[in-house]
Amino acid sequence: MTRRSTRRAVNRASLNYLVFGVALSLALGTSPARADEAVADSVKVNAEAAKAAGEAKATSTKMKAKAKSKQAKAAKGGAVTEGTKAAPGTMPVKPDVEPQHVQVQHILIAFAGSGTRASRPMEEAKKLAYEVLEKARKGEDFDALVKQYTDDSPPGIYGMSGIGVAAGAGEYARDKMVPAFGNVGFAISAGNIGIADYDPQTSPYGWHIIKRLK
Q: Can you list the positions of beta strands (E) in the chain?
């Protein structure tokens, strides 16, 4: 094909495109410039809609992740009522290395029929236990909470040695204590506060709010 033939073909294509554009604008009842603007506006609206949908999806994902996190904390006795703040260091943090010896202080919230002097129903005991846990987590004096609420004898302080570790002076072997003490006491860092829920095997006397002292 010669250069002249090529030029003619290009000119014909350009002319056809122009005719198509004019026909489209007439069909839309607007000028070619307005047709271009309408197309641009449509593209912009679609882009904004896609962006909004993406943001909504991201927000939904974030909320689901937050809800799962709260459920996980609640399952581990780490729940704190919405709107309250835990005092620094009170939330359960697993030690880098499980200690061989710990000292804990606890508040026992028992219920009628658990082999203690408590006369409250089980559901009432559970509700009270988590109310006391929240007070402790918010930084209220733990000694005062022990004196006010425990169904054990204040100050409720016990030393424990780990499994297979010789007990020191004033300590108890972990496997000689109610399992809840060791299960919580050895799983948190000093200063942290955890809770052992009632369980016929591991925590038969009720709910234990446990603070690791050292």
A: 101-109, 157-161, 171-173, 193-196, 207-212
Q: Which residues contact 151 (CB under 8 A, 6 or more apart)?
A: 108, 109, 110, 116, 117, 118, 205, 206
For residues 13-41, b (16+ Cβ closer than 10 Å) or e, as one string?
Answer: eeeeeeeeeeeebeeeeeeeeebeeeeee
User: pLDDT tens digits, residue range 51-73?
Assistant: 655 565 555 555 555 545 544 44
Instruction: Please count the CA atoms within 13 angstroms of the CA of 15 that sit on its side-chain side.
Output: 6
Tokens of 74: 């609640």
Closest among 127, 131, 126, 136 to 156, alpha carbons compared: 136
Query: Residues in the chain, how many?
Result: 214
pTM score, whole prediction: 0.61
